[in-house]
């Protein structure tokens, strides 16, 4: 019985460690997704400005 209690205590400890790792990884993933969205938006804005600057309107539209 004592051996089972020791094993259960060890498993509970491992579970808590794994849970902490999963929570930390979730937070990191969330931060990285936010950074990717920011970079993606920046690239889209830069590309849109590039397209606008290369597509000059004809004189009669200005």
Description:
By secondary structure, the protein is an all-alpha fold. It is built from one helix and no strands. The chain starts with a helix and ends in an 8-residue tail after the last helix. The model has no long low-confidence stretch (mean pLDDT 93).
Envelope shape: rod-shaped
Helix content: over 70%
As an assembly, this protein is single chain
Largest sheet: none
Rg:
27 Å
The pLDDT mean sits at: 93
- Strand residue percentage: under 5%
Quantity of strands, as a count:
0
Instruction: Kindly report how far apart the N and C termini lie.
Output: 88 Å
Structural class: mainly alpha
- In sequence order, what are the helices and strands, one letter per element? H
Instruction: Detail the poorly predicted runs.
Output: none
Note the main attributes of this structure.
single chain; 62 residues; mainly alpha; rod-shaped
């Amino acid at each position: 019985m004592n051996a089972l209690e020791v094993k259960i205590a060890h498993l509970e400890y491992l579970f808590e460690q794994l849970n902490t790792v999963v929570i930390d990884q979730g937070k990191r993933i969330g931060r990285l997704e936010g950074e990717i969205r920011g970079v993606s938006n920046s690239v889209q804005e830069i590309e849109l400005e590039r397209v606008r600057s290369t597509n000059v309107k004809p004189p009669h539209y200005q």
